[in-house]
Structure formats: structure tokens, C-alpha cells
Design goal:
By secondary structure, the protein is of the alpha/beta class. The protein is 48% helix and 15% strand. The protein is built from eleven helices and nine strands.
């Protein structure tokens, strides 16, 4: 018996088919392909958005950023900056895109500060819809916003009117995760009080933030406890730091104050670890909710309107309709040709079988 035959005979045990190995195949394929994730960070200037993102992914997304002075900020409008970085950890590749929103909430009149953000989110859905409806569907780059960290100032007594209006405008388009910035400015009691106030205001205004999925009954107790703690921690009170300090003989990332060190990765000091755990362990769910809920809502609305977008004139609309008709016609022709080819193959096989039967007789 050859070695190849032996290797196959070892697998063929009674009652074993082999489809239990399918998750391993999916895992290998996913690792080989890599993962994509797009995170948006929104909040006023000076709340530590960039520092927190760099701390979360242990990278420097903004190496050449120039911080505008007060005079430049007076003229500044909300603009969106997308930074993409390829991260690899233990052979797993992640293409991370972080969309920052400099200028948000910095103007005297912020009534229109979120329109550019809404337009950007819709543009990504529109681009994905067009790529999905096109001919080359294999190499679609997914730039849809999968998660939005909304930074809330710790220097207040809850949500500002801008916070409420922004989340109400976006909660049907993106997964919002509220974050209390610079939590090291507050005591533990102040943090708990602010968290309760924010959650009450979110509920009172009917704002839908990202709901962490419930655990299945067959999940292990540790995971169930972890999800319970993550749900209780919302909104996450965090602080970021990229400086390594020595505390009791150990190197930690933290912030040095006259009264001591705030360790970023110490769960007793802030919710940084919980926020990162939530993002990493529920990254797939965030993508699925984006695809199955937010994108499907956008897609159904657009299809209901006949794929008509404001700003298109009659000629461009006719062009889109004719392109779509051409795609549908070409698809029908291709399917018809495939059916005819399959029918010819079956006729040839039938003729060969009849010839064999006659030869045997």
C-alpha cells in the first residue's frame, strides 16, 4: 500500500464524512485573503482621537499631521481624511482605514457640521453599490464605514445638543460606539455618574447605538462574562497614550502626572482594554451589521428610487438605465449560451452511451 493510500485510509473512519473540517478551510482562506475594516472617529478637536487610535492599533497613522493654529481654525470647515495602514500580526493581515473628521464641532455655528460626514458615508455606500452592480465584482474594495467612535467631552454634564443631533442623523447609517474622551480627568464616581447620564439621554432621544450581540446559551462562561462587562462599560471611558513609562520595574504605556501614572492598559484606570476587546472580538459582527442592516437600507432606498441620485440630469439617468439594460441583456445572453453548451454536451454523452450499448449487443 502506498503512502498516499495510507494517508487517505487513516481519515476514513466509520461514521466520519469530513465536513467538520470546513471551518478550517474558511479560516485558511480568510487568513490568506486578509481582512478589511474601516473605522471613523468623530469628535471635537483636542479630545485625543488620534492618540487613542494609535494606541489601539500600536501604529502611527498620522506621521506628518500639521495641527492648525487658532487663526486657521476660524476658517476651517469639516473635512474628512482617510488614512490606510496594513497591519500584520501572527500571519494575519488587516487593512485598516481610519477616517478622521478634523474641524468637527470647532465652529461657532455647528448646525451644518455633520452634513459632510453624512455625504461621505452615503458616497461609500454608493460606490459599493455601483461596484457590486458592475462587471468586475471579484475585486471590490470595501470602504464602507463599519464603526464610528463618537467622542464625548468629559467637561460637561452629559450630551451637548450637537452630540444628540449628530447621533440622531447617523444612527440609521452606521454603527455608533459612544466614547468618553480623556477619562483620566474624572474620578471613578464622576465617570459612573456621567455614563448613567449619557445612557439616559441616549435612551430619551431614541438614539440607536451599536448593540453588542447577546451570547448563545452554548458559549463558555468566560465569554458570557466578558460580553456582560462590555455591555455595562458603554459608553467607554478611555484615555490614550503612546509613551512607554516604567512602573514597578515594568514598561507600560501611560500618562505621567505629579500624583502618579495613569496606565492605559490597566482596566482599573480606564476602559481602554474593554474598548479594544469590543472592537476586535466583534469586528466581524460590526461588518455584518453594516452589510445586512445599514447597507441594505441604503440599497433598498436607492433601488426604490430607480437608482436616481440628486444632481443627475436626464441624460446621465438615461445613460445609467441603458448601461443597466446592457448588463442585464449581456447576462441573459451569457446564461443562454451556457445552457445551450450544456445541452450539446449532454446530447454528445447520450450519443456515446448509445453507441457503446449497440457495440456490446
Amino acid at each position: 500500500m502506498s503512502s498516499d493510500t495510507k494517508s487517505f485510509s487513516n481519515i476514513e473512519t466509520p461514521g466520519y464524512v469530513g465536513f467538520a473540517n470546513l471551518p478550517n478551510q474558511v479560516h485558511r482562506k480568510s487568513v490568506k485573503k486578509g481582512f478589511e475594516f474601516t473605522l471613523m472617529v468623530v469628535g471635537e478637536s483636542g479630545l485625543g482621537k488620534s492618540t487613542l487610535v494609535n494606541s489601539l492599533f500600536l501604529t502611527d497613522l498620522y506621521p506628518e499631521r500639521v495641527i492648525p493654529d487658532a487663526i486657521e481654525k476660524q476658517k476651517q470647515t469639516v473635512k474628512l481624511e482617510a488614512s490606510t495602514v496594513e497591519i500584520e500580526e501572527r500571519g494575519v493581515k488587516l487593512r485598516l482605514t481610519v477616517v478622521d473628521t478634523p474641524g468637527f464641532g470647532d465652529a461657532i455655528d455647528n448646525s451644518d457640521s455633520f452634513s459632510a460626514i453624512l455625504e461621505y458615508i452615503d458616497d461609500q455606500y454608493e460606490r459599493f453599490l455601483r461596484d457590486e452592480s458592475g462587471l468586475n465584482r471579484r475585486n471590490i474594495v470595501d470602504n464602507r464605514i463599519h464603526c464610528c467612535f463618537y467622542f464625548i467631552s468629559p467637561f460637561g454634564h452629559g450630551l451637548k445638543p450637537l452630540d444628540v443631533e449628530f447621533m440622531k442623523q447617523l444612527h440609521s447609517k452606521v454603527n455608533i460606539v459612544p466614547v468618553i474622551a480623556k477619562a483620566d480627568c474624572l474620578t471613578k464616581k464622576e465617570i459612573q455618574r456621567l455614563k448613567s447620564r449619557i445612557m439616559k439621554e441616549i435612551e430619551d432621544h431614541g438614539i440607536k447605538i451599536y448593540p453588542l450581540p447577546d451570547c448563545d446559551s452554548d458559549e463558555d462562561e468566560d465569554f458570557q462574562l466578558q460580553v456582560k462587562q462590555l455591555k455595562e462599560a458603554v459608553p467607554f471611558a478611555v484615555c490614550g497614550a503612546n509613551t512607554l513609562l516604567e512602573v514597578k520595574g515594568k514598561k507600560v504605556r501611560g500618562r505621567l502626572y505629579p500624583w502618579g501614572v495613569v496606565e492605559v492598559e490597566n482596566p482599573d484606570h480606564c476602559d481602554f482594554i474593554k474598548l479594544r476587546t469590543m472592537l476586535i472580538t466583534h469586528m466581524q459582527d460590526l461588518q455584518e451589521v453594516t452589510q445586512e442592516v445599514h447597507y441594505e437600507n441604503y440599497r433598498s432606498d436607492r433601488l426604490a428610487k430607480g437608482i436616481k441620485k440628486p444632481g443627475h440630469n436626464k441624460e446621465s439617468e438615461n445613460l445609467i438605465v441603458s448601461q443597466n439594460s446592457a448588463i442585464i441583456t449581456s447576462d441573459k445572453d451569457r446564461i443562454l449560451q451556457e445552457k445551450e453548451a450544456e445541452l450539446r454536451r449532454m446530447q454528445e454523452m447520450l450519443a456515446q452511451m448509445q453507441a457503446k450499448i449497440q457495440a456490446q449487443q
